[in-house]
Design a protein that fits this description.
The chain has 220 residues and is an alpha/beta fold. The protein is built from seven helices and nine strands; from the N terminus they run E-H-E-H-E-H-E-H-E-H-E-H-E-H-E-E. Helix 2 links the parallel strand 2 and strand 3.
């Protein structure tokens, strides 16, 4: 049976389920300083990720990423969380983080700073919504790693303008991966998926049944 979360051109080969698009979402764990509409915006982003058959990865946290996961589950999407805690007990009782809407949680045990690195590197691309210093940290990791980055714009927050300033002041034009600024979640996700596919077309993988090497072929 074909894997339901693969991009359409991969669905007929379950061996390559790994190649489902993995979209990370970063944003503030506190949304009290934002307008109430931010929750619906976050949910719509999650719905869009699920509609595009991508896997959502977030920090297994509260706030904006939480509502994105809620939206993804409305569309029966798959949600993976990367926790700063070393166990479920620490995740709930020490960090006070939720388990809701997660299909899988990885307990990194590295605190927030270490978790940010593992989270970002587990994604094929990352979307950044409204945020504070943690969101900026995840942006800078993705920028350094040349990941495709999508920055969700809205008149309800200023984080997108902060990222524009960071990019401009970095004086590193052409040294990052593709960066997209969009206010429409669907358009943003479509651009990120296209960027992921473009990167993958340049890669080669071993394609044989015994797993011990063989002819190297383009599979996308």
């Amino acid at each position: 049976m074909s894997h339901p979360y693969l991009h359409p051109h991969l669905r007929n080969n379950d061996k390559h389920a790994y190649f489902a698009h993995k979209i990370g979402v970063s944003g503030s764990a506190q949304v009290d300083f934002l307008k109430d509409t931010v929750k619906e915006t976050a949910k719509e982003l999650g719905r869009s990720i699920a509609r595009h058959n991508a896997v959502l990865i977030n920090g297994a946290t509260t706030g904006f990423p939480y509502y994105v996961a809620a939206g993804a589950k409305e569309r029966k999407g798959i949600c993976m969380g990367m926790s700063p805690a070393e166990s479920e007990e620490e995740h709930v009782n020490v960090y006070r983080l939720p388990l809701d809407y997660m299909d899988v949680i990885t307990y990194t045990g590295f605190g927030y700073a270490g978790r940010d690195l593992l989270f970002t590197r587990s994604c094929d691309a990352i979307v950044l919504g409204p945020g504070r210093v943690g969101t900026i940290h995840e942006f800078t990791i993705a920028f350094e790693d040349k990941k495709p980055i999508g920055i969700l714009q809205s008149p309800d927050w200023e984080t997108d303008e902060i990222f524009k300033t960071i990019i401009e002041k970095s004086h590193r034009k052409g040294e990052s991966g593709p960066i997209f600024f969009e206010s429409d979640p669907d358009v943003l996700i479509e651009k990120l998926i296209a960027a992921i596919d473009d990167t993958r077309r340049k890669r080669y993988v071993y394609k044989n049944d015994d797993g011990v090497g063989g002819k190297c072929e383009v599979i996308l």
